[in-house]
Design goal:
The chain has 401 residues and is of the alpha/beta class. The protein contains twelve helices and 17 strands. The strands form three sheets. Strands 6-7-8-9-10-11-12-13 form an eight-stranded parallel β-sheet, with helices on both faces. Strands 5-14-15-16-17 form a five-stranded antiparallel β-sheet, covered by helices on one side. Strands 3-2-1-4 form a four-stranded mixed β-sheet, with no helix packed on it. β7, α3 and β8 form a beta-alpha-beta unit. α6 runs parallel beside α7 and α9 packs across α12. It binds zinc ion. Zinc ion binds next to loops. The site of zinc ion has 6 residues, from loops.
């Protein structure tokens, strides 16, 4: 049996432990023995904090320019407009480096920072067809030893307003996408029922999960959220549906939010937020209190939507905590939970965590505990995949191809 011992690991609960990894999973976790005769080949972690690898819950592998030429941001002509941003994106992509190369750059950035599970949306519409999906499926295959990737067939140009898209989405799911996406059923397609009929129809047909981009704000956004929650419940899809962004939850009254949060929790719909700069975003603490799974992702990294993003989910926890006004230790721990355990729950990951039987995908950091890790965001870290050292201080040590 392939076995490795890691000594003096500081766990999130404060325990200093010796960890044994056998065949890629934790086989023993015991209080540190400080033995004078450690097993041969044992690695002394010297009291570093050991956390399960982070969960990158929402990214776009096909549209980032990370590692490519810098693309100055083009502002919308009359306030934030999804349709206009999509047009800028198409123009930029025409001049970009090959997609597989850009996707690899982004993957290595994320792995280097400690994310070993990811959900990426991939653009599908009648114009680009399955081109993006085919490329990203190929990249996923090459990196499967390094990172687990779920792919969402994402109708970036709408569904009803881009005739032929529903058929291509169907093909994308047949080809290997794991989930069906959606995009602002009201403001983009101007037909909430029609849009959701296609999304949930394809989910049912393929037994796939749903992850919908929803930027619509205020009561319009809330109406769509409640429609999605109602369908999720009616179809028994609790735990398999995500609303990404859900800006609408960020600018409604506390009373309205309380009722909505209860219904979202009861429907088992998870909410993804990246705490975006100038947008209202879901109130993380209130939603968690109501029992809603709130998780996070980088979303756009140096793409046509904005120049920000560093692929570091610990830094994302910091941003979420900062924007949420989290100061106490338990609140900082909540910000960390959003990029780790809550992400694992939302993505339905098997064997996540530092526990006997769990997959030995972990990160070691120089921090005393989780709250310090969230505020300090130490960049010096080592990433282990199935107990094997795959990246140090952001640099990949084990290439997949
Ligand atoms: Zn997105």
């Amino acid at each position: 049996m392939d076995q490795t011992h890691y000594l003096n690991a500081r766990l999130a609960d404060g325990m200093v432990a010796d960890l044994t990894v056998a065949d890629g999973r934790f086989s023993a976790i015991v209080p540190a023995t400080n033995t004078v005769t450690p097993p041969s080949g044992a690695i002394d972690l010297a009291g570093q904090l050991v956390l399960p690898a982070f969960v990158e819950g929402h990214i776009h592998l096909d549209t980032s320019f990370y590692g490519d030429a810098w693309r100055p941001h083009i502002p919308c002509t009359n306030g934030f407009d999804v349709r206009e941003r999509v047009a800028f994106q198409m123009r930029n992509l025409d001049q970009a480096a090959p997609m597989a190369e850009r996707a690899r750059n982004q993957l290595e950035l994320c792995v280097g920072n400690g994310s070993l599970s990811m959900r990426s949306h991939v653009m599908v519409d009648a114009a680009v067809g399955l081109k993006h999906v085919e490329t990203i499926l190929g990249v996923r295959e090459k990196y499967r030893d390094l990172i687990d990737i779920q792919l969402v067939a994402f109708p970036q140009s709408g569904i009803l307003s881009s005739p032929g898209t529903a058929e291509v989405l169907d093909e994308a799911l047949k080809l290997g996408c794991d989930l069906i996406g959606g995009l602002d059923p009201a403001s983009f397609d101007r037909d909430v029922k029609g849009h959701l009929d296609v999304v949930f129809g394809l989910a049912e047909k393929h037994g796939a999960g749903v992850d919908i981009h929803l930027h619509d704000r205020g009561t319009l956004g809330l109406f769509e959220i409640e429609e999605i929650a109602a369908r999720t419940k009616a179809l028994g899809m609790q735990g398999n549906v995500v609303i990404s962004h859900a800006y609408g939850l960020g600018d409604i009254s506390a009373d309205t939010l309380a009722g909505a949060a209860e219904r979202i929790a009861a429907a088992g719909v998870a909410i993804m937020t990246n705490a975006p700069g100038d947008h209202p975003f879901p109130p993380v603490a209130a939603l968690r209190k109501a029992g809603v799974t709130v998780f996070a992702g980088s979303d756009n990294i140096r793409d046509s939507w904005w120049p920000y993003g560093d692929g570091d989910m610990l830094n994302r926890a910091n941003m979420i905590g900062y924007r949420s006004g989290f100061y106490e230790d338990w609140e900082l721990e909540a910000a960390y939970d959003v990029v780790s355990h809550a992400g694992a729950k939302a993505l339905g990951l098997e064997g996540y965590g530092i526990a006997v039987g769990a997959r030995a995908d972990f990160v070691t950091l120089k921090a005393e505990h989780v709250p310090e890790a969230v505020v300090a965001v130490p960049k010096e870290r080592t990433v282990y995949r199935a107990g094997r050292d795959v990246a140090r201080s952001g640099r990949i040590s084990a290439k997949s191809d």
